[in-house]
Amino acid sequence: MKYPNNIQKKIQNPISYKNRGMDLEEELNLSNEYYLEIDKALIYKKPTPIGITTVSYSKQGKIIERAYFKEPSTLDYNGLYRGKYIEYEAKVTKNKTSFPLHNIHPHQITHIRKVLKHKGIVFLIIKINNLVYLLKGDDFIKYIDTHQRKSLPYDFIKTTGYLIKFGFNPPLDYLKLVDQIFFKEE
What we know:
The protein is an alpha+beta fold. It has helices at residues 20-37, 106-117, 137-146, 154-160, 174-182; strands at 2-3, 7-8, 42-45, 50-58, 61-69, 77-81, 84-93, 98-100, 121-128, 131-136, 151-153, 162-164. It contains 5 helices and 12 strands.
């Protein structure tokens, strides 16, 4: 669009909610790369286990035409931090009042219980209302064991969870909270 004095302004594209979880995942991946670079932690995104049945070939290389999920995946990220096993699931919701529990599958809840049983560090990172919270695995399990709701109320997340502040490097310094929550006695 042209304005007086030949000033040009670009019109921004409308906001797309496609892949809305990708922003959080990207921020966490950058944070984990930063932790790796400064030798603070080894935390990686787990690939989804798939089996490939049909492949075709093109100039660009192999193209997967048919595939299937080999087995249910556990949680999104895992690794080591300060000598402890750490694992977490990252989720985004555009619901402003609650986090739907159907976003966490039954096999993932079972897995969270197992990590807790073996004294690992496990939690959820939930992005809701453009804020990011860390919710401890045991608080999540206690909630679903004592409530019949199909969602976590935003007030529960806000009061029980821990707000992760946005930064530059790393974008989401969630290990700062892990230190405060899980290593407070040291």
